[in-house]
Amino acid sequence: SREFDAAALDALDTLERGLRAIPGALLMVTADHGQVATDPERVDWLDELWPELPRLLTHRPAGSARDAFLHTVPGSADEVIAGLAERLGEGSQVRRAAELVAPGPRLADVCVLPAPGRMAWLRSAAGRATRFRGHHGGLHPDETETWVGALYS
After folding, report:
1. Do residues 18 and 150 lie in contact, with contact meaning Cβ atoms separated by under 8 Å?
2. How far apart are CA 86 and CA 128, in angstroms?
3. Cα–Cα dist 91/149, whole Å
4. What are the start-end ranges of the E strands in the chain?
5. Distances (CA, A) of 40 to 16, 121, 133, 153
6. pLDDT tens-digit map of 48-57
7. Which of 71, 90, 117, 138 could bridge across to 66 with cysteines, CB 3.0–4.6 Å?
């Protein structure tokens, strides 16, 4: 948004003024990931696409509307993967979470990665996150690649 751009430029201008006060100083700036544009009208509500889905889940989803992690009833992960993949169609990916990140004690079984520009979540767990116009968490390069900037005096 214009407001975000203005705030970011203001922060960088402030850093630049500070650096000028310290001759020979170097400041490296980086981010852990970027974002993609999203539209609150383009949410795939998983429990509306598949009303039976909640009975196959043990917890509310984790992650975000760009990487929805689902904790499934033991033995139902394959059914959830197949059922959501069929309903979401081309562009979205539904995968075992262990294929994407190292397994851990709290790791969900299934991860839904919506197509670029889309979000996926459960209406029963809806919150502010699905109202954002920018998001991260998916596999699009704009979400996974990072940048480095350097300011020096």
Report:
1. no
2. 27
3. 32
4. 26-30, 36-37, 43-45, 62-64, 67-70, 93-96, 110-113, 119-121, 134-135, 148-152
5. 36, 11, 7, 43
6. 999 999 999 9
7. 138
